[in-house]
Amino acid sequence: MSELIKVTINEQDFEVEKGARLIDVCREKGFNIPSFCYYSDLALQASCRMCLVRIEKMPKLQTSCTITCTDGMIVTTQSEEIEKAQRAMSEFLLANHPLDCPVCDRGGECELQEMIFDWGDVEERFTEKKNVEPEKFLSPIVANDPQRCIVCKRCTRVCDEWMGEDAIEAGNRGVNTVIGTYGGWLNCSQCGNCIEVCPTGTLLDGVYRHETRPWELDQTITTDVYGSDGMQLSIGSRGGLVHRIVARDRYVNGLNGEFLDVKARFAHEFVNHPDRIKTPLIRYKKGGKLIPATWDEAIHFVGQKLTESGKNVGVVASPRLTNEAIFTLKRFAKEVVGTDNYAVSDRYDLSVFFDNLSAPLATHKEIRKAKTLVLIGGEPEEEQTFTAKQMRQAVRNDGAKLIIVNHTPIRLSAQASQFIHINPNSYDAFVLALTDSANDDANAKKLGIETKDLADFRQTLSETEGDTVVMFGGDLSPQAQSVLANSADAFDGTNAKVLFHPLPLYNNSVGANDLMEGKKSLSEVLKNSKALLIGGSLQEADTNLLANKDFIVVQELFETETTKYADVVLPAASFAEVDGTFTNNTGFVQRVRQAIEPVNQSKADWMITTLIAREMGADFGYNFSATMVFKAIADSVSAYEGLRYPALKDESKPVQVKHAISAKKDLSKEFDVLKSNVEKLSDEANKLTATPRVGHKLHRLTTLTSKTAQFHLLAHGNPKPENLLVSPLVQFNLDGTPRTETADAAAVGVTDRINLKVEY
Amino acid sequence: MEIKAIGCEPLQLKRMHIKDGHTLKVYQETGGYESLKKAMNMSQDDIINEVKASALRGRGGAGFPTGMKWSFVPRQSPKPKYVVCNADESEPGTFKDRYLLERDPHALIEGMLIAAFALGAAACYVYFRGEYRYLIDIMDKAIDEARAADIVGKNILGSDFSCEFFTHTGAGAYICGEETALLSSLEGYRGHPRMKPPFPAIEGLYACPTVVNNVETLTAVPQIIEMGGKAWQELGTEKSGGTKLWSVSGHVKKPGVYELPMGYKDLEKFIMEDCGGMLRDDKKLKAVIPGGSSVYIMNAEQIVGKGVTMDYEGLVVGGSMVGSGGFIVMDETVDVMESTKNLTEFYKHESCGWCTPCREGTDWLVKIFNRISEGGGRPEDAQLLLDICDNIEGKSFCPLGDAAAWPIQSAVKRFPEDFKKWLLNKTNGNGVVANI
After folding, report:
1. Do A390 and A486 sit in the same domain of this protein?
2. Which of A78, A197, B206, B362 is the most exposed place for a label (fewest CB within 10 A)?
3. Per-residue pLDDT at A65 exceeds 60
């Protein structure tokens, strides 16, 4: 705790920390101060002039957002003079702001509305004509109504400071200032954070636009189903339909505040998509069709077939499923089938990381406050978007040192204090160099870097005063991962705490690894079993191993490459329809909450597995309650010991599971593999020099994202339509005929909104 | 067009009428760069003390004591220091710097070099307004000449003092005359003002200690070094030292640039005698804006027979400010409502849009003035104008908001007849103009 100083606010004395910001102090002490442009952890703006206060010995009213408290400061936040100023500012803001709240999507949750109710005047003195600007789309998913803008520039600041994109900026001057893009079209990763932070209806969700009013939506706090950061979000649903996803409330921050990425925010149309599997499907004859069946029929059929296969049943869980579903699948393998043939269909195996983990996992807060960040491989901007944002802010706002070791000049490397650009596939050599400085020259040669780079790297580590966070993921070989995870001591600096951060690819990769203890590799399981129970589809590349099996059951939302091999497909419920938990890449177990009733006849994955088990004569004792499943997890998995749903209730205080910290291990076998791998590397430098566009993975069409119409436009390079004044999904030529792009969009199977016919 | 000194020897205007006064040769023949040599033999503290003793106050408009501004610069800081000349002369009614830059560019170079020497600065920047494009060529030529003569660049005059010179042009924004906006623009960003503190003296150009001075302020520095701070101060008054240039325009017979000692008596005599009196003999004096458009407008009663002295203190007593010395005289043919409307349109056009009161307030004011001038004036408009101005004044991010409010406040209060005419006519009948 730093030094305390005395501040007097409205004649009451308070002790506050030295250097605290006045507006934060006032709000904390219960003196409400209005503001638009002030946003904690963003650059100060002081432009809205709402937060004016009177400070003794200062000539004018001062903006409390720019004042740091000094000892003996005497502040007045409420007086006639201040009230007049606040009324005046709200009057100015409303002068050119159209009062079209009844048709504005933000109406009902608009900060301007709230602020005017609280601080504005009852009477409107502005009787002149308002300035107008036509509304338009900035991209397929960002709608813009410039006349509603109050120029708080939160959007431009988050674009710059959070995303490092700078895709959106203020144009023109004076009262004509508008938020605009370079070239009139938003060319970025489309995260939509500008929409989230906008206090008015200037930037709007183009997917949700005009669908419903916010107060008619049920808000359910849950966890992102795409990324491994476990971002907290709020599903807005109504009448069994998911209408929109926004970040968790600004004032009750989950771990990510208002930050979400493009997939988390916009790619939710899959939940209510017409292609969802509606009933259980049975393929009675190999090569035949999948035929709808009742649940009783399907479960009975599955039970019979799996019993016939005896111990030859393998179980595969997708890292997208909830902890409850994965755990139930494992129990099925262990208790019902009695086999060790179970696996996770992840793209890389986290068990080597956790088995050798020699330091705790870093939380996102610790990443933000770290002094040195070491990123080895990976591309967080595409896969772990929130981690990338924390890294960028740590560097930009707090001067953290970022060291990037990568074979691709990823965009984050522009922010790095040291970018070690290595040859492709040479991460093994880097890990060797890290643990053994004797062979720097040889290793540097294999890496295609100067020997000095390694020395600089070590120097930065040794000079670090504060936390060091080391991040790496599936770009490294399993041996390299185990050696790195086991060598926290290699990163020790002065007074430093070393923390690790894995870079998993899926929302519950970590949970799947925790719960599937003793799992085998996917190919092994697929090879060893004659029958399979698969929860969630496999990667497309792995599906060829499914050929020639006796019997395959798949729990899925959609028909995929995997269901082509299935004998029975059971309709599973999506994340919006189930209760459960995900474990994120910082080890936080966070709740997934049911927003809507299961769509069609689908059931939660864990319930389907339980039904099959019951059919086969095993009772897991869940009593059809997710709470009981989680209790079973807590009772049998040591890292989750003692946890219950009520303990996970408050998303602003997430609970970290206790991953075991292993002692220094003898990894000579791994070292041998690394050494032989490195020897095989060529000495010639052969570097990748192109920086990939950010968004190329985020916009990738997958089973889930492809169900949101706008993602097809994004995946095809986010084309700029000729006429921006109307939605890019419904485009017409001047003669009234639909534009051809629209026809394309219809061809890829998007909802009937696209096929809208208009007759003139 | 008169360019002359009245009541003192021409100091600032010394080379205005000398042929080729802008060349290094003529400049040196007339005593140029002697002050630099003298200054380079003085200690840094002595130079700053001389400037303090001279009571030189910033000529750009705010009138901040220059010596004090220089003393704020942390000279022991390891960061490089910069001297920036604000040649973004865009205050309506002001055109003095233009003549200094055109006819005496070496005086500015010398003044900046002395400042750079006193502050240990490594580089000097001259920021011109976009419309002064042709002056950049003159300045660049002067810098090249000086560089060839070892006055600018490495090892100036054979000493170990080195200082680089750069010129830069704005893109036509009034706001870039505000020192922090000027620095933003100079760095290549959009010309938005910055938060103060930190003041430029601590964190200015590229977050390094920076002094930003007006052209006229810097050209005064060689004179101060030459004659000594005390002697220079005694040309003027105790708190406003030296001489000041006034850009006179409007309804006078002899508009032009006049150099007057500070404390010149009096304003009425200046208009009626020195500037040749009113343009049309049968028209009476109605209004004067003495210091550029951003100061209070004065009416005839405040001038005639009042003996207003022309210095910082005297004009405040007289009801206005020195500002940048843009002296605009208006006779009785002027309708102050319309002249104020014109000024307000300027401020709306030049508001940068950063902060709410200035952005929206100036737009609203212009809309009201437009309505009034189209015959839609209402009696309550006078009070509304004053109230909007009060809501802008002191609450905007930078002084542009204040500058937009002051002319209107003073016009409405000091020229009630001109407003009553518009607000009480036609449809609105017998209303009363409140609180005028």
Report:
1. yes
2. B206
3. yes
What whole-number distance in Å separates Cα of residue B326 and Cα of residue B329?
10
Q: Is residue A647 part of a domain?
A: no
Mean pLDDT of chain A: 90
Q: Is residue A733 part of a domain?
A: yes
Report whether pLDDT(B427) > 80: no
Dihedral angle at the C-alpha atoms of A268, A274, A277, A278, nearest 10 degrees?
120
Is the same domain home to A342 and A356? no
Tell me the CATH number at A70: 3.10.20.740
Could you give the CA distance from residue B406 to residue B292 in angstroms, rounded to a whole number?
A: 12
- List beta partners, residue A73: A7
Same domain, yes or no: A108 and A236: yes
Segment A211-239 shows an average pLDDT of: 93
Q: Which of B190, B349, B363 sits opposite A96 (nearest CB)?
A: B363
Whether the per-residue pLDDT at A352 is higher than 50: the answer is yes
One-letter-per-residue 3-state SS of A55-73: ECCCCCCEEHHHCECCCCE
Residue A670 lies in a domain: no
- Mean per-residue pLDDT for A365-378? 94
Could you give the CA distance from residue A376 to residue A362 in angstroms, rounded to a whole number?
15
- Judged by CB atoms closer than 8 Å, whether chains meet at B367 and A177 is answered as no
Of A32, A65, A93, the residue at which a domain comes to its end is A93
Is residue A226 located within the same domain as residue A104? Answer: yes
Closest alpha carbon within chain A to B394: A60
Cis peptide before B266 (omega within 30 of 0): yes
Of B356, B363, B364, the CB nearest to A47: B356
Taking each helix axis from N to C end, the angle separating B400-414 and B356-371, rounded to the nearest 10 degrees, works out to: 30
Rounded to an integer, what distance in angstroms lies between the CA atom of residue A178 and that of residue A169? Answer: 8
Q: Does B360 sit within 8 Å of A96, measured CB to CB?
A: yes
Overall domain count for chain A = 4
Question: What's the whole-model pTM score?
Answer: 0.90
Q: Is the pLDDT of residue A744 over 70?
A: no
Does the structure's ipTM exceed the value 0.90? yes
- Section B339-345 average pLDDT: 96
Q: Which of B259, B358, B263, B341 is nearest to B309 (CA)?
A: B263
Tell me the CATH number at A365: 3.40.228.10
In a domain, residue A663? The reply is: no
Phi then psi for B289, rounded to 5 degrees?
A: -105, 105
Same domain, A704 and A625: no
Tell me: do A119 and A241 sit in the same domain.
yes
Q: How far is A35 from chain B (nearest CA, A)?
A: 12
> Helix, strand, coil shares of chain B as percentages rounded to 5?
45, 15, 40
Domain boundaries, position A294? 281-347+511-580+601-632
Q: Is A743 left (phi over 0), alpha (psi -120 to 50) or beta?
A: alpha
My answer on whether A234 and A149 are in the same domain is yes
Domain boundary among A502, A522, A540: A502
d(CA B171, CA B193): 15
Residues 137-196 of A with CB under 8 A from B: 150-151, 170, 172-177
Say yes or no: A676 contacts chain B, CB-CB below 8 A: no
Q: Is residue A435 very low, low, confident or very high in pLDDT (cuts 50, 70, 90)? A: confident
Interval A264-291 mean pLDDT: 94
Hey, are the CB atoms on A174 and B359 less than 8 Å from each other? Answer: yes
Same domain, A617 and A760: no
User: What's the CA gap between A336 and A328, in Å, rounded?
Assistant: 11
pLDDT band, residue A749 (cuts 50/70/90): very low
Supply the pLDDT for residue A715.
85
* Closest residue of chain A to B380, computed from CA coordinates: A125
What pLDDT digit, counting tens, does each position of A687-738 carry?
Answer: 889 998 888 889 988 999 999 988 888 888 888 776 555 455 555 555 656 5
Nearest to A651 by CA among A67, A256, A168: A256
